[in-house]
């Protein structure tokens, strides 16, 4: 995937939408990726793009449900042989008054009326005696037949679903593939490894974005460091082989903030350009002409985390074909300095079924308060201490 080379006049989204509107825009902007079949053992965690249908019967033939003796007609029964699981040759038909020793899972001979478990039988002089109770035979197709629905479209493929599909002869599953997400980290002061030196800071976005992308059903790529240079950023955006390109930093109006100019040059369509929330105001969502998405995260870690939960999570969830999780709310208590007309995203602790409590000391630059929290609460203008608010699950 490459960006178009012909620039067009940029299109601007409404300035600073409310947090809820921005979140809804990101969710509604994308559709699930085009489905493709994958080997069933690789399908776990993906979303079915079409119904999963049985390809063979389960069991494929009448099989013994117990270790014991397959018997035909009334007893006692003359013991004539043995049948083990895994034998592929058809067993000779069982005549009345005859029995064969049989293992659980072995195909029962034609004519078998029941399997007599060892504990309910005895052998004396080559004859089996006992009183049959339940047949202890799993009949062919009793769990399902070819064409039976195993799972409808839209359901996640769980490990149990994989096992069930294998039981019914399914080799491939039609799924929504994982959206690929690339992270471009801007800033001449940022280092990806080791301890930062004078004038440097260590990147913190890679572990946050990777964890969030995996949670949403996406596939994160290795993070790339991009210098504070307009041409370098444009090249990195054009060559990022991903469905979604996340850019940390470069989103404000400073001398080193080139993202808006670069995206305008590439002909991007802005769906969200700033959000009326604190922290995380200078975040954005844009669509490139080639169908890729760009999510802009503020360079401050706390603000970037809020932006990732606001725009990146709903976008990747939609691309992966996953349903939007129902919003979780809880009463929220604590002190908060508020700005009118602005949604505040604050860390909270939740313990023992009581109300969520605001963790003091949070801001746009630090993560210490967030690290001590259980969730982020979305506090709008109508909130009063003790009133319910939406909670965002931390990655």
Care to describe what's here?
With 395 residues, the protein is an alpha/beta fold. The strands form seven sheets. Strands 14, 17, 18, 19, 20, 22 and 23 form a seven-stranded mixed sheet that branches.
Shape: elongated
Helix content: 10-25%
Overall mean pLDDT? 92
Percent strand equals: 25-35%
The major sheet is characterized as: 7 strands, mixed
Alpha-carbon distance between the two ends: 28 Å
Count of distinct strands: 28
Whole-angstrom Rg = 31 Å
- Please mark out the parts with pLDDT under 50 across 5 or more consecutive residues, or reply none: 1-10
List keywords for this structure.
395 residues; alpha/beta; 7-stranded mixed beta sheet
Structure, briefly:
18% of the residues lie in helices and 28% in strands. It is of the alpha/beta class.
List the helices and strands and how they pair.
Blueprint lengths: L18 H11 L6 E4 L7 E2 L3 E2 L9 E2 L3 E4 L5 E7 L14 E5 L11 E4 L3 E4 L2 E4 L6 E2 L10 E3 L7 H9 L4 E5 L3 E7 L3 E2 L9 E2 L2 H12 L2 E2 L3 E3 L3 H10 L4 E5 L10 H7 L3 E5 L3 E2 L5 E4 L5 E5 L3 H19 L8 E6 L9 E7 L6 E3 L9 H4 L3 E5 L8 E6 L2
Parallel strand pairs: 6-7, 14-17, 14-18, 14-19, 15-16, 19-23, 21-25, 24-26
Antiparallel strand pairs: 1-13, 2-13, 3-12, 4-11, 5-7, 5-8, 6-10, 9-10, 20-22, 22-23, 24-28, 25-26, 25-27, 27-28
Helix pairs in contact: 1-6, 3-6, 4-5
């Amino acid at each position: 995937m490459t960006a178009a080379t012909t620039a067009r006049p940029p299109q601007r989204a409404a300035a600073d939408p409310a947090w809820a509107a921005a979140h809804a825009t990101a969710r509604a902007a994308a559709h699930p990726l085009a489905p493709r079949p994958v080997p069933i053992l690789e399908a776990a965690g993906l979303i079915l793009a079409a119904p999963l249908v049985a390809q063979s019967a389960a069991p494929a033939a009448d099989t013994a449900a117990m270790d014991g003796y397959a018997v035909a007609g009334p007893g006692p029964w003359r013991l004539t042989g043995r049948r083990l699981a895994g034998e592929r040759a058809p067993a000779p038909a069982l005549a009345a008054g005859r029995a064969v020793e049989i293992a659980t899972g072995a195909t029962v001979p034609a004519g078998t009326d029941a399997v007599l478990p060892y504990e309910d039988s005895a052998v004396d002089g080559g004859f089996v005696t006992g009183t049959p109770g339940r047949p202890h035979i799993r009949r062919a197709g009793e769990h399902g037949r070819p064409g039976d629905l195993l799972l409808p479209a839209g359901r996640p493929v769980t490990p149990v679903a994989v096992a069930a599909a294998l039981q019914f002869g399914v080799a491939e599953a039609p799924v929504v593939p994982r959206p690929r997400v690339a992270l471009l980290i801007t800033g001449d002061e940022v280092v990806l490894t080791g301890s930062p030196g004078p004038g440097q800071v260590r990147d913190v976005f890679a572990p946050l974005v990777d964890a969030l992308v995996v949670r949403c059903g996406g596939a994160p790529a290795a993070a790339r460091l991009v210098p504070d240079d307009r041409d370098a950023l444009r090249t990195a955006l054009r060559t990022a082989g991903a469905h979604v390109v996340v850019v940390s930093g470069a989103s404000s109006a400073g001398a080193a903030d080139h993202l808006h100019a670069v995206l305008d040059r590439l002909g991007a369509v802005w769906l969200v350009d700033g959000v009326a929330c604190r922290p995380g105001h200078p975040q954005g969502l844009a669509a490139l002409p080639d169908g890729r998405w760009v999510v802009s995260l503020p360079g401050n870690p706390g603000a970037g985390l809020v932006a990732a939960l606001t725009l990146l999570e709903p976008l990747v969830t939609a691309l992966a074909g996953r349903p939007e999780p129902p919003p979780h709310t809880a009463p929220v208590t604590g002190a908060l300095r508020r700005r009118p007309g602005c949604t505040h995203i604050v860390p909270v602790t939740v313990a023992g079924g009581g109300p969520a409590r605001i963790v003091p000391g949070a801001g746009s630059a630090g993560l210490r308060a967030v690290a001590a929290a259980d969730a982020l609460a979305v506090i709008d203008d109508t909130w009063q201490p003790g009133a319910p608010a939406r909670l965002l699950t931390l990655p």
